């Protein structure tokens, strides 16, 4: 599966805000490493926004602004921990405030459940697992800071709703782009 990445920086403010793309290769690394790269791509304290998508799986938004800490939001932290960008999501708190479970954690929990009852807990008779892939992970597997775009026009509620209800990461990031006023630019970069 392919990745899509884009780095955007706003110029102006409010209704007069325009966005421009920033030419930078997004390397996998910790939030601080990515933040340093994003800050180095602009020459002032403007916000810089990185958009990452893993085709058909998840989207992530990374924001930094001047010396402020890097803020990250990912729609599916469990799937993202298996990606090339896993270091970026390793320390994020999950939607429940608990650490993000890694795929290994889920496998270990499944194995412990199997050992405890001698069965493979894959769901009820109707085939409903109640989780993604039967791994025992709740449907709300987003992680990070859902408020990272509130001041730019995308509320936390909207971001969480897109993360939990959209099956197409590209569709979700386009919707975010519409709210921020950069959808056309984002689409032109695809």
Give the terminus-to-terminus CA distance. 15 Å
Q: Using only CA atoms, what is the Rg?
A: 18 Å
Number of strands: 6
Summarize the helix and strand pattern as letters.
EEHEEEHHHEHHH
How many domains, in number, for the residues?
2
Share of helix among residues?
25-40%
Textual characterization of the structure:
By secondary structure, the chain is of the alpha+beta class. The protein has 2 domains: 3-101 and 139-188, no CATH class; 102-136, no CATH class. Helix content is 32%, strand content 18%. It is built from 7 helices and 6 strands, in the order E-E-H-E-E-E-H-H-H-E-H-H-H. The chain has a 6-stranded antiparallel sheet, with helices on both faces. The longest helix is centred in the middle third of the chain and has 15 residues, at 103-117. The two termini are 15 Å apart.
Which key phrases capture this entry?
2 domains, alpha+beta, 7 helices, 32% helix, 190 residues
Short characterization:
By secondary structure, the chain is of the alpha+beta class. It contains seven helices and six strands.
Present the secondary structure layout:
Elements: E1 3-11, E2 18-21, H1 31-40, E3 47-54, E4 58-65, E5 71-74, H2 77-80, H3 86-89, H4 103-117, E6 143-144, H5 156-165, H6 169-180, H7 183-188
Antiparallel strand pairs: 1-2, 1-3, 3-4, 4-5, 5-6
């Amino acid at each position: 599966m392919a990745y899509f990445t884009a780095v955007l920086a706003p110029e102006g403010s409010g209704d007069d805000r325009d966005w421009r793309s920033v030419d930078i290769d997004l390397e996998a690394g910790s939030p601080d490493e990515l933040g340093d790269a994003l800050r180095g791509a602009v020459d002032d304290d403007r916000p810089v926004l990185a958009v990452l998508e893993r085709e058909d799986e998840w989207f992530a938004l990374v924001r930094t602004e001047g010396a402020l800490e890097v803020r990250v939001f990912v729609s599916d932290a469990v799937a993202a921990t298996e990606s090339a960008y896993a270091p970026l999501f390793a320390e994020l708190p999950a939607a429940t405030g608990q650490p993000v479970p890694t795929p290994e954690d889920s496998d270990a929990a499944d194995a412990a459940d199997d050992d405890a009852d001698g069965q493979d807990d894959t769901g009820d008779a109707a085939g409903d697992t109640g989780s993604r892939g039967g791994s025992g992970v709740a449907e709300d597997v987003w992680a990070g800071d859902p408020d990272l775009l509130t001041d730019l026009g995308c509320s936390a509620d909207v971001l969480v709703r897109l993360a939990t209800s959209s099956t197409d990461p590209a569709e979700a990031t386009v919707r975010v782009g519409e709210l921020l006023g950069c959808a056309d630019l984002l689409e032109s970069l695809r």
